[in-house]
Design goal:
Rossmann fold; Tyrosyl-Transfer RNA Synthetase; 2 domains; 7-stranded mixed sheet; about 45% helix; nucleotide-binding; Rossmann-like_a/b/a_fold; Tryptophan--tRNA ligase, cytoplasmic; tryptophan-tRNA ligase activity; Trp-tRNA-ligase
């Protein structure tokens, strides 16, 4: 997809939005929905600096993604220490490193999920993957690593959607190729350690129908074409398959889409861990949900895992040198880090010793913040490197060690995943012990 304007609302006037052409009601005025999170002027100004939507993430002129502006634009909330401490108290677990270091930084209604959990009410998790490559890169792993932590901490069921249909619509791939990639990606997902007694993985081409399809139609009927253009930036050049896809990603938020799992439990809440570029789908979903008698899904959203070359965008499967793959060898990882990882160090050792590194732009430091478990070691590296007492080569060497260990552990876990295990995770079946 080329760069496009991303408009996030319909015609906004104050706190109200005008919708036109909804059956017998020629127009309807109601409170401004979540789909209109910011004004057109604000959006146009921000688009000059950064583009963030489900298909493109980029900052112009070498800039960084401004997450504060994204929070304001999307209308979500920052995940603060109070919520993280409450999560720790309720689950009796140390918060995940992704929470401690602000990787997951924003949310919608996460406090309500904690309220429900504290009351003894149940909920389920939903996340997903668009299978467009043979193997996952580290950026793809992040939501699954975090979702596993949530599943273990709360002891709740999880549905994982593989949008093979989306990749057929957006990529130059055949249906058969996307179906094959979905199974290959499922192996990487299973290797993250999910509990099969609490986890259902499904691919759209195989699963969509029945109650799931009925919910898709309920959503589709309540989102106008103009709203879809406003939320997702569709143009006259986009085929109708793209315009019709968003309900497919929306309805796993509703328990009635999975009658084999949640029959009689249609009032369950849903929590979605995802990167913040997926927020447009779920703003739309949250706007529609009350109108079809469902809870709004809650979200907990992450920053982007940056490309090796810097923070102007996210790691991309389309550029092999921007990404570390779970299939990369130790030699590949060392070469990519040493050759391509953007450094905040100075041009010479003498200058570096004098001025120190700019750790705010240094990619090895960013990656260590994601994957180095030891908080004390990370702070020591940042302090020494920032003061010039540690050199770029030393920081990169430590990163290579951390990433090589992570990838090797994942490779061993994936090698143990059989075709029969994939079939078992993807079987349409009840999960009688999903809340045990």
């Amino acid at each position: 997809m080329g760069r496009r304007k991303v408009q996030l609302g319909s015609v906004v006037a104050g706190n109200y939005v005008l919708f036109v052409g909804r059956g017998k009601e020629e127009s309807e005025t109601r409170e401004k929905p979540e789909m209109a999170a910011s004004t057109d002027t604000e959006k146009q100004q921000e688009e000059q600096e950064q583009v963030v939507n489900p298909w493109e993430v980029s900052a112009k002129d070498g800039g960084k993604i401004d997450y504060d502006k994204l929070i304001d634009r999307f209308g979500c909330q920052r995940l603060d220490d109070t919520l993280i401490q409450r999560l720790e108290r309720l689950t009796s677990r140390l918060p995940h490193v992704f929470l401690r270091r602000g990787v997951f930084f924003a949310h919608r209604d996460f406090a309500e999920i904690l309220d429900a959990y504290e009351r003894g009410d149940k909920f389920y998790l939903y996340t997903g993957r668009g299978p467009s490559s043979e193997a996952l890169h580290l950026g793809h792993l992040i939501p699954f690593m975090f979702t596993k932590y949530l599943q273990d901490a709360f002891k709740v069921p999880l549905v994982i959607q593989l949008t093979d249909d989306e990749k057929f619509l957006w990529k130059n791939l055949t249906i058969e190729e996307t179906q094959r990639l979905a199974r290959e990606n499922a192996k990487d997902i299973i290797a993250c350690g999910f509990d099969i007694s609490k986890t259902f993985i499904f691919a759209d081409f195989s699963y969509v129908g029945g109650s799931f399809y009925k919910n898709m139609m309920e959503v589709a009927k309540r989102v106008t074409y103009n709203q879809a253009v406003g939320i997702f930036g569709f143009t006259g050049e986009d085929h109708i398959g793209k315009v019709s896809f968003p309900p497919v990603q929306a309805v796993p938020s509703f328990p009635s889409s999975f009658p084999h799992l949640f029959s009689g439990k249609e009032n369950l809440r849903c929590l979605i861990p995802c990167a913040i570029d997926q927020d447009p789908y779920f703003r739309m979903t949250r706007d529609v949900a009350p109108r079809i008698g469902c809870h709004k899904p809650a979200l907990i959203e992450s920053i982007f895992f940056p490309a090796l070359q810097g923070e102007t965008g996210k790691m991309s499967a389309s550029d092999p040198n921007s990404a570390i793959y779970v299939t990369d060898s130790a030699k590949d990882i060392k070469n990519k880090v040493n050759k391509h990882a953007f450094s905040g160090g100075q041009d010479s050792i003498e200058k570096h010793r004098q001025l120190g590194a700019n750790i705010e732009v240094d990619i090895p430091i960013k990656y260590l913040s994601f994957f180095l478990e030891d908080d004390d070691e990370l702070e020591h590296i940042k302090k020494e490197y920032g003061a010039g007492r540690m050199l770029t080569g030393e920081v990169k060497q430590r990163l290579v060690e951390v990433l090589t260990g992570l990838v090797e552990r994942h490779r061993r876990a994936r090698a143990a995943v059989t075709e029969e295990m994939v079939d078992a995770f993807m079987a349409v079946r009840p999960l009688p012990h999903m809340f045990d």
